[in-house]
Design goal:
Layout (H helix, E strand, L loop, with lengths): L1 H9 L5 H11 L1 H10 L3 H6 L21 H4 L2 H11 L23 E5 L3 E7 L6 E7 L4 E2 L5 E6 L4
Parallel strand pairs: 1-5
Antiparallel strand pairs: 2-3, 4-5
Helix pairs in contact: 2-3
Length: 156
């Protein structure tokens, strides 16, 4: 073992292989004590596999998960708040709008938060939906003769 120590003292920086050879033969505790006696205490604690290692831990915060409403933003958050208040269909998409009288002086009101909306009319005696762009202002007439008008509603 003395030949290993003499080689260790001659080299400017001891190699990990040399130190691992020393620790295999002499045991970890004996080697660290020997290095401390020779004034090489920094090698006794700083080399992996030799001496005690410090363990760093962080405390775990056992907080609850954030609520969905706290994480949501924009329109999704407004929808969640409306559902909490009891409005299960904030966009009025579950139930279609039924046609009213549809005359020129009494058109069917179509709610919209914008200045225009795409409207589909299921005309009597036809299998296909007739689509038209309804804009704010005067009532618009479908091909079947039914009138629609845009009604302003507050946005969601």
């Amino acid at each position: 073992m003395s030949s290993y120590i003499s080689r260790l003292l001659r080299t400017p920086a001891a190699s990990k292989r040399l130190i691992s050879q020393l620790t295999e033969r002499g045991g970890k505790n004996r080697f660290s004590l020997l290095l401390q006696r020779l004034g090489l205490g920094k090698w006794a604690n700083g080399v992996s596999g030799v001496g005690p290692r410090a363990i760093s831990t962080t405390p775990v915060c056992k907080a609850e998960m954030a609520d969905d409403i706290e994480l949501a933003t924009g329109i999704a958050k407004r929808e969640m708040l409306l559902r909490e208040q009891g409005c299960s269909d904030p966009w009025s998409m579950v139930k279609g709008i039924r046609r009213g009288a549809g005359r020129e002086n009494d058109p069917t009101p179509i709610p919209s938060a914008f200045d225009g909306r795409l409207v589909g009319c299921v005309c009597l005696g036809d299998r296909f939906v007739k689509w038209m762009w309804l804009e704010k202002g005067n009532p618009k007439r479908c091909e079947c003769g039914h009138y629609f008008v845009l009604k302003k509603v507050p946005p969601v």
